[in-house]
């Protein structure tokens, strides 16, 4: 899935929405704290992620910076950690829904 390597079945995973756009409403406070997380569709060739320099407290966005998976954009990646469980990724949200949410209730598991 878009959230990383997964062994979950398609029925458990949430679909990836490549048109999703989101900005976090919380972030660290302080002089060198990064801005809230953002994600959204790649709309042009110049639409890419930069990187946060912890030492300087600056967000550099003047050239692409690849993540560990080699991606330079965050299209389809609006699944960062949320809540006390820090659930993230289409696989984790899908499993949560499948086993504890609406899918579980509709199958009589709850």
Account of the 3D structure:
- It is a single chain.
- This protein has 110 residues and is α+β, with helices and mostly antiparallel strands.
- 15% of the residues lie in helices and 9% in strands.
- The protein is elongated.
User: How many strand segments?
Assistant: 4
Uncertain runs:
1-8
Give the helix/strand class.
Answer: alpha+beta
Helix percent reads 10-25%
Give descriptors for this structure.
110 residues, alpha+beta, two-stranded antiparallel sheet, 2 helices, 9% strand
Write the layout of secondary structure elements.
Blueprint (H helix, E strand, L loop, with lengths): L21 E2 L14 E2 L11 E3 L4 E3 L28 H12 L1 H5 L4
Antiparallel strand pairs: 1-2, 3-4
Short description:
This protein is of the alpha+beta class. The protein has 2 helices and 4 strands, in the order E-E-E-E-H-H.
């Amino acid at each position: 899935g878009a959230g990383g390597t997964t062994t979950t079945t398609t029925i458990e995973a949430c679909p990836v929405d490549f048109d999703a756009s989101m900005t976090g409403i919380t972030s660290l406070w302080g002089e060198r704290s990064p801005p809230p997380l953002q994600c959204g569709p790649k709309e042009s060739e110049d639409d890419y992620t930069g990187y946060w320099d912890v030492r300087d407290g600056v967000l550099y966005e003047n050239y692409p910076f690849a993540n560990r998976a080699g991606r330079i954009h965050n299209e389809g990646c609006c699944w960062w950690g949320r809540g006390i469980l820090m659930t993230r990724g289409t696989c984790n949200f899908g499993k949560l829904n499948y086993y504890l949410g609406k899918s579980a209730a509709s199958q009589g598991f709850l």
